[in-house]
UniProtKB/TrEMBL annotation:
InterPro entries: Beta-barrel_TonB, Beta-barrel_TonB_sf, Plug_dom, Plug_dom_sf, TonB-dep_rcpt-like
Ranges for domain TonB-dependent receptor plug: 49-150
Taxonomy, superkingdom: Bacteria
Name the UniProt record assigns to this protein: TonB-dependent receptor
Membrane topology recorded in Swiss-Prot or TrEMBL: Multi-pass membrane protein
Signal sequence coordinates: 1-25
Compartments reported by the entry: Cell outer membrane
Source organism (scientific name): Rufibacter sediminis
Domain TonB-dependent receptor-like beta-barrel intervals: 184-618
Membership in a protein family: Belongs to the TonB-dependent receptor family.
Keywords tagged on the record: Cell outer membrane, Membrane, Receptor, Signal, TonB box, Transmembrane, Transmembrane beta strand, Transport
Amino acid sequence: MVRRLLLFALATVAAEFLALPNSYAQLKDTVQLAPVTVAGQRSTRYAAGSKVQAVDTLLLQRRPGLTLSDLLQQRSPLYLKSYGNGMTATVAFRGTSSSHTAVLWNGFNIALPTLGMTDFALLPPSASTQVSVQHGPSGALHGSGAVGGAILLENPVSFTPSRQLQVQQGIGSFGHRRTAASGAFSDGRLALSSSFTRTSADNDFRFQNTTAYGSPQETQQNAGFDQTSLAQEVHYQISPGQRLSARGWYVKTHRQIQPAMGSANTNAEQDDENLRLMGEWQGQFAGGTTTVRAAYFKDRLDYKNDATLSTVDTSSLSTVNTYQSQVEHERALLPNLLLQLGAEGQLFKANVGGYGGKVDEQRFSTYAWLRYDPLPGLQISLNVRQAWVQGFNPPLTPSLGANFRILEQNGQTLSVKANVSRSYRVPTLNDRFWRPGGNPALKPESGWGYEGGLVHQLKKGQLTGTTEVTGYALQVKDWILWQPASQGNYSEPVNLQRVRGHGAELDSRWQYTLDDRWSFSGGLAYAYTISQQKLPDFRARLQDRQLFYVPKHKVAAWAEVRFQSWWLTTDATFTGRRFTDNDNNNWLPAYYLMNASLGKTFAWHTFETQIMAQVQNLTNTVYQTMAYRAMPPRHFRIAVSLRWVPQP
């Protein structure tokens, strides 16, 4: 099935290359059509006062097939918890849990409605994907689940005439293999793009078993994985003010489930299959821009283990069909006043073995976003969303923010920002319907977030840079947490009274071009996170306890040196101590990691070849991101890519 889809997608692009050379040449002298506004820019347009950072996607271009987990770990201050290399990976955003981060793909939330979270190891974005990280509560923009923040995946539309093809092959330690191919075509009216990646690894690395006497070296068992991803886009410009778009993204992953140290290997396996399809029409209507979207998602998760090797057979089969639709209209009421109105509907149809039957749920929401620039250096945004969920009554979620430029001289600007937002999260389907333990009487979570900071930008000669400092506070009422049931050998979700958090974030990025041969770039991202709940001590006195698996300190730094066609990149991360229980009695020690890569580009006419060598975990650090889950030691990878970009 996957091979047929891949052949069809690449054949479509190739047909356009071969069948339209004459028309492509003729279009070079024609008048270019006016561009259509892309609604994906709304994440920054209506987010005044919020911290929104674009992730350097050069890593995706050099290493197609890289998952969102690896990308964010190396280029953001987010802490990603992983059950092993290639295993389930979730995020802790500003001290919240894995279900408090919204992930949107071209405007649609792709989090599983059963779990309410996203496995970032199942998201290998294409090389053309723009990845942005929006920090803080953004429920008024993105709906349920955006309590800690949101990850935005956008595939912008471009009708600029172009053609290109690229293939890459990589191999590495522990059976790592990666194959990638992509193609793109545009003639000014029709735009096509296709991408395919396949990544696999045996993960038979040696690790130190800290649960056994003497901490002996052992070989990791049952940790291999195989992942295939195919993305296809088709865009057609009907007229200067109208376009049609269709996007598809298919990911199939087979994983052996890496056992914890000291646990029996039950040969557990998991198969994930994620199909995402969407269509979009955008055009000029009623004095503004109207966008209509519709999407269908099918998410399948099948887990099984060897019941003869386990005291409990926890095999589980689940399939969720999601139907979503959106309609938006954006209009400039005044030259400095922009308004967007929208509505969204969702239908979930879940067939999960753990529910004892099929479950359906409907959701609907309306929203209004306002952007006002009363002064050249002042931007204000006011957003509001109201949701209706079957069986629940989520609160009204407003958001108010502002940016104000207080200094601009000698190539420098200094701006101050502030934002206050309300957020909410509806209990997941598992929270309510899982047997045993599900609680249909759970309340929706409701939270408030506050943040403020300074942004400094410098552009002087050959040096450019941006530094942003942010302080924030948040509180969430009725936080949902799974804990052991008072009776019975199972867990159940409960509403905690309140969880509070605060912290600070620093992001600094710089680039210096010495001449046409030498250039230097680098960045630093740091997060200080306090996220606490009040729990009784042995004397029944309430004490503040840091939420488990929330490090107080996380640092990510990277640097690159380019000399002619050579480049050398290093990145390093530091992760502080993390508690592994609610009582803060046990913890994982702090650790740091370093990676390095060296590459060279060769060019011949319209062809470009790149050779790259990488060293992962350069310092051979022994570490765990989840308790008793071994991670690989130092390992190596090499990759060769060939790119064809014909001259216009």
